Each structure stands twice: as C-alpha cells, then as structure tokens.
User: Fold this.
Amino acid sequence: MSNAISISGSTYTVSGTIKKDNQGVLDLHVEVYDKDFVKDDFLGIGVTDSSGAFSVSFDSSKFNKFFERKPDLYFIVIDYGLELLLSLIHIS
Assistant:
C-alpha cells in the first residue's frame, strides 16, 4: 500500500493505492482511524477504484482533543468483511 497525506487548513486528506501483483485492487474498503490512549477515533472510509486508488478527507476536529495536535493514523483494509491489512502511520 502506498499513501500520501495532504493538509489544507483544518482538513486532512489521506490518499493511497492498493495493488496486488502490480495491479490495482477494486472495491476494497479502507477505514482510517486515529490511534488514542483510550478510544481510537474513526476518521472516515474510502473505497478503492479500478486502479486501487482511494481517498479519505476529515477535519481536525475529529481527532484534536486535549494535547493531541496531529493524528496517529492507521488503516484497516477490508475485502468483503475480511481484514486484509493493518498499517500505522505517525504524522510528524
């Protein structure tokens, strides 16, 4: 899985591509979460297109609590209810 994060004001956009054998994978659900100490925040869900690309946008108000200024993102990739991948990314 490849990915990129862009920030515009208080809006974050996470985009990426999921491939198998160098081919995009269609119709995978990519759930995006912010890892927290107590309860993780669900930030959004994207669905891959025929090239395996997905995009999820969310506002900083979904994760900006107490002293947290940047999200610790992780992704869960799901194919028809079967979890295929769990990936953690720390934004610095």
About this structure: The mean pLDDT is 83. The two ends are 20 Å apart (CA to CA). The first strand starts at residue 2 and ends at 8. Residues 19 and 41 are 26 Å apart (CA to CA).
